[in-house]
Amino acid sequence: MCLGIPMQIRSIDGLLARCEAKGVEREVNLLMLEHEDLTVGDYVVLHLGYALNKVSAEEAAAAWEIYDQMLAAEAALPQGHPLA
User: Fold this and answer.
1) Which of 12, 40, 44, 81 could form a disulfide with 51 if both were Cys (CB 3.0 to 4.6 A apart)?
2) Whole-number Cα distances in Å, 66 to 26, 35, 39, 61
3) What number of helices (H) and strands (E) belong to the chain?
4) What number of other Cβ atoms are within 10 A of residue 44's Cβ?
5) Is the pLDDT of residue 28 over 90?
6) Mind listing the domains of the chain with CATH numbers?
7) How far is CA 12 from CA 45, 54, 64, 78, in A?
8) In this predicted structure, which of 19-23, 54-58, 69-73 has the lowest mean pLDDT?
9) Torsion sign over Cα 39, 11, 22, 32
């Protein structure tokens, strides 16, 4: 399964951005959104180093709430479980 991760843009240099989510920073390629009006503070969905689309802060927060629930469920699995 592949998941797109929402991240907030911290800086932009041409078609590269420095983005952050949950204390993790990544360099993100903005080529696929080159015609989008992106600014520092915007949220983008990241997959394999590329920003795929711009999302609202509310959409990013909702996605992270779901991801946090998934991580909590995984952490609650007993040791040795095939999904753990």
Assistant:
1) 44
2) 21, 29, 26, 9
3) 1, 5
4) 25
5) yes
6) 5-75 (2.30.30.140)
7) 15, 14, 23, 43
8) 69-73
9) positive
Residue type, 45: V
How far apart (Å, rounded) are the C-alpha atoms in residues 63 and 69? 10
| Other Cβ atoms closer than 10 A to 30 | 19
Distances from the Cα of 5 to the Cα of 30, 31, 78, angstroms: 14, 17, 26
Is a pLDDT exceeding 90 seen at residue 74?
Answer: no
Please report the DSSP string for 16-28 in residue order. Answer: EEEEEETTEEEEE
